[in-house]
Design goal:
Elements: H1 7-34, E1 52-59, E2 63-74, E3 80-88, E4 93-96, H2 110-139
Antiparallel strand pairs: 1-2, 2-3, 3-4
Helix pairs in contact: 1-2
């Protein structure tokens, strides 16, 4: 009887760990941008430059949903980039919400979905770092 982990399971666990790390890093960056995230309420707008408009969509005891509209980046149909982020206060994580539903992933495709989420959240992380750098440069 083989008691070792299968290679596919080991890869899935590693990919999931990387995704959780990205969520934690995104939370830290958002804390650096906004301070205490629990003080933000539904409807709050938190502009920090002319191009980016963050807005709190919903807030509850455990989560906070924010939408970022970046007028310096245009995407599909020449509309400004819009990112929806969910912040989990209790887990101290933040994830970029997918435009499609996560439960549409079939069990056989879980690792592909995790990899896609990781790539998207890594892009969010890079975008947040760029926004933080921009904010710090304007304060100096």
């Amino acid at each position: 009887m083989n008691t070792g982990d299968s290679p596919a399971l080991s890869l899935r666990v590693a990919a999931f760990g990387q995704l959780m790390d990205a969520y934690e890093q995104n939370y830290i960056l958002l804390r650096r941008l906004f301070g205490d995230l629990r003080r933000l309420q539904t409807g709050d707008e938190c502009p920090w430059n002319a191009a980016v408009m963050p807005k709190v969509i919903t807030s509850s005891r455990y989560t906070l949903d924010m939408q970022f509209t970046d007028h310096s980046i245009f995407g599909h149909k020449q509309r400004p980039l819009q990112l929806k982020v969910r912040i989990y206060h209790d887990a101290r994580t933040a994830e970029l919400l997918e435009p499609t539903r996560r439960d549409q992933c079939l069990q056989a495709e879980v690792s592909l979905c995790t990899e896609k989420q990781f790539r998207r959240n890594t892009l969010l992380q890079k975008w947040l770092i760029q926004q933080l750098d921009s904010l710090l440069n304007t304060q100096n």
